[in-house]
């Protein structure tokens, strides 16, 4: 069955969350990633920003004042400019809440309460509202109000030190350049919202969802969480790591006995299958350095492509270490429709589509970015403001509504 995005675009216009309205107060990455997933699956996502726009609008690459980093996270959303520090802005939000199915925010705990827009203050307006709060440590508890960004959460969760523990001879943690916590937490928020919507279909009631970035990161250390509770001998070397070739590096994953046996055939060491140093899984862990030295003695004599061809012939899971640019050029990604072209005020650029396909629903990014405040006037009219009230709505509203 052809379940690529291209195939679904041809004959299936159904989207899983068609008719769902989401108010998006989130900024930076975690919350916007969650709501982008909701938009791609059909929800009407209304992104609420101040007049100057949220901070990600300035992140490079920027062309003609349009950030593609912001676009990756926010394509497909409608744009509404409101001043949440003004009584009029708060009242407009409360009117919108009455029409919404989901609200997503990732302010520091306490911010929405001070605005009188927290779950306790608004759930009576719309008892069916699913209110999702994303924060570093959760909404309550001794760490709840601590400031938190992804690199801080990586350190606080033990993730970075768990990674270092697999690097022999190292004690200093790595620098952080990729924000795993933000993306992972956004995905958990999307899953929690989906579960709450399913529950609401039976109960008719909304609820408050509290998503913690630190707990999300801990889920990446499943083995380490167990090892931390018991006295376990640490491995002598990480199970998976690069092997060097004449022109690069290759990752080989020895994940089963068959994989190990086939790899020994590839490198010309079939006798190592019964070698006491490597015959059993526990033996291989204790002698991992010697095993990998033997593998690299083979791989260092050939190029990356020859290495991969030999490994693939014997069914040994492997890949070259690629750059992101190289990965984006993979024909497999093109086959699955993994990238979508988006248009904004700076031209066109490509964004990632969601990594899942559905045989009965369309899952795809929108084709253009909304301009800042593009939908402000239409939503102010929808909630009942007159032309005169809109003109007086914190002065600059009609101007920003023109983008």
Mind explaining what this structure looks like?
The protein has helices at 5-11, 30-40, 68-74, 87-97, 111-114, 119-122, 150-156, 159-164, 180-203, 213-218, 222-227, 257-266, 281-286, 288-299, 304-313, 324-328, 331-335, 376-382, 387-391, 397-400; strands at 21-24, 44-49, 62-63, 66-67, 78-81, 102-105, 130-135, 207-212, 242-244, 249-252, 318-320, 339-344, 347-352. The strands form 4 sheets. A 6-stranded parallel beta sheet has the order 5-2-1-6-7-8, with helices on both faces. It has a 3-stranded antiparallel beta sheet with strand order 9-10-11, with helices on one face. Helix 2 packs across helix 9 (180-203). Residues 396-403 have low confidence and may be disordered. The chain is elongated and about 85 Å long. The protein is α/β, with parallel strands linked by helices and 403 residues long. The protein is built from 20 helices and 13 strands. The longest helix is centred in the middle third of the chain and has 24 residues, at 180-203. Helices cover 39% and strands 14% of the residues.
List the helices and strands and how they pair.
Blueprint: H1 5-11, E1 21-24, H2 30-40, E2 44-49, E3 62-63, E4 66-67, H3 68-74, E5 78-81, H4 87-97, E6 102-105, H5 111-114, H6 119-122, E7 130-135, H7 150-156, H8 159-164, H9 180-203, E8 207-212, H10 213-218, H11 222-227, E9 242-244, E10 249-252, H12 257-266, H13 281-286, H14 288-299, H15 304-313, E11 318-320, H16 324-328, H17 331-335, E12 339-344, E13 347-352, H18 376-382, H19 387-391, H20 397-400
Parallel strand pairs: 1-2, 1-6, 2-5, 6-7, 7-8
Antiparallel strand pairs: 3-4, 9-10, 10-11, 12-13
Helix pairs in contact: 2-9
């Amino acid at each position: 069955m052809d379940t690529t995005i291209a195939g679904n675009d041809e004959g299936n216009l159904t989207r899983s969350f068609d008719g769902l309205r989401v108010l998006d107060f989130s900024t930076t990455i975690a919350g916007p990633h969650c709501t982008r997933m909701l938009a791609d699956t059909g929800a009407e996502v209304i992104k609420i920003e101040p007049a100057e726009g949220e901070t990600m609008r300035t992140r490079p690459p920027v062309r003609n004042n349009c950030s593609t980093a912001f676009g990756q996270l926010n394509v497909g959303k409608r744009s509404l400019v409101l001043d949440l520090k003004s009584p009029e802005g708060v009242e407009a939000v409360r009117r919108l809440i009455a029409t919404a199915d989901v609200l997503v925010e990732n302010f520091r705990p306490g911010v929405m309460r001070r605005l009188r827009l927290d779950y306790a203050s608004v759930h009576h307006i719309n008892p069916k509202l699913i209110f999702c709060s994303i924060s570093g440590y959760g909404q309550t508890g001794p760490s709840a109000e601590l400031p938190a960004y992804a690199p801080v959460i990586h350190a606080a969760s033990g993730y970075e030190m768990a990674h270092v523990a697999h690097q022999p001879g190292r004690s200093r943690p790595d620098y952080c350049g990729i924000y795993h916590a933000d993306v992972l937490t956004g995905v958990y928020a999307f899953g929690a919202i989906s579960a709450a919507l399913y529950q609401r279909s039976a109960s008719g009631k909304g609820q408050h969802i509290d998503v913690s970035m630190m707990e999300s990161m801990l889920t990446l250390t499943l083995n380490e969480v167990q090892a931390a509770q018991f006295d376990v001998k640490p491995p002598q070397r990480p199970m998976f790591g690069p092997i060097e070739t004449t022109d690069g590096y290759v990752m080989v994953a020895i994940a089963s006995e068959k994989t190990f046996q086939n790899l020994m055939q590839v490198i010309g060491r079939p006798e190592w299958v019964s070698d006491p140093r490597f015959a059993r899984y526990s033996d291989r862990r204790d002698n991992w350095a010697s095993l990998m030295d033997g593998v690299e003695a083979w791989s260092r004599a050939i190029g990356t492509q020859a290495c991969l061809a030999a490994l693939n012939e014997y069914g040994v899971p492997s890949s070259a270490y690629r750059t992101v640019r190289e990965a984006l050029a993979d024909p497999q990604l093109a086959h699955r429709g993994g990238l979508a072209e988006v248009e904004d005020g700076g031209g066109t650029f490509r964004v990632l589509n969601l990594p899942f396909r559905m045989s009965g629903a369309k899952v795809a990014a929108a084709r253009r970015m909304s301009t800042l405040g593009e939908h402000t006037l239409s939503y102010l009219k929808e909630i009942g403001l007159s032309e005169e009230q809109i003109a007086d709505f914190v002065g600059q509203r009609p101007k920003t509504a023109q983008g």
